[in-house]
Amino acid sequence: MAQPTRPELLIALNAAPALSRPAAYRLAQELDRWSASGSPPDVLAAEAGVPRAQMRKALAVIETAADTAAREAAGAERLGGRIVTVDDDGYPSGLRHLSPPPPVLYIRGEIPAGPAVAVVGSRRADAYGREAADLFSRALAAAGVTVVSGFAQGIDAAAHRSALAAPGGRTVAVLGCGLGVDYPRGHGRLADEIAASGAVVTEFPCGLIPRAWHFPLRNRSLAALAAGTLVVQAALRSGSLITARHALDLGRDVWAVPGRIFDEGSLGANALIREGAQLVQHPADLLELLLPTAAAAQLALPPSAPEPEPPPGFAGQVLAQIPPGSTRLADEIAIRLESPVDRVLAALLELELGGWVKRLPGPVYGR
Description:
The chain is α/β, with parallel strands linked by helices. It is built from 16 helices and twelve strands.
């Protein structure tokens, strides 16, 4: 049996339902280390920093990788899209700043060159939120700035539609599901319009329906595709604040539109302002901030960032074992918590994906 090519392996790993998302990310990063090695699976798992069970499943993917990749490529083509891997020249440069980056993207249309701003907010937007999203998105698009959003109901949909309504306006939608899934239901025509002048982008296989854990991953890609993130309307526990945190982690700007202090749906945006995000009240404020820095090699971080709550459950216990500024071995954490090392490695993968820890050679993890 011929060895699959590197792109085929990346696509097959990304599409493998038996692999957890953190493991697929890690295995894609370490592809050359394990895919052609003759070492035992347990050794490969330790070297790659993934649980042993996940490594065995990844090795099984190799046998059908070529067929899986061909099937995924054909599915994307039927939907008017294409597949781009992290090795390709056409892979968006902003996503390479993520650690780890999505190994595979499915793209309909073309991601526009030039400055981009992510406009995000509540699915349950009120008239004020929709009006603000329309004002900013329309003005940004008219000025030649691409509007990036998450294709959800509410603020996202308003941002996309308003960008398209501007002369020459361009927008990019980042999905939390596959290209072939009608979600949100009834947004198919909007997706077609977006792809005609911008792009619809996802890291998920064509037929994969949305799951709750998809959206934090979508949000990190959304933040990475833009020079900064504008939060129009958001509650305190909104996914928009996750996008803002990823933007801050990437060294991108975060802006927020203030809302009424009595509206629960505005508390998140107001909290961002209190913690250091730049308050904007008119598109001119944003354009003055954006355009001088759009071509800069690195964007400045806002004065301070909101301090997110620690992750819940076992991941939070693992994180607590790594004080800020220190490093720990996975085995050391497992001993301290009296827990199997595979469970600790799985939690560390989740924490790395969320930006809480970084993996160093060893494998050593630090904050």
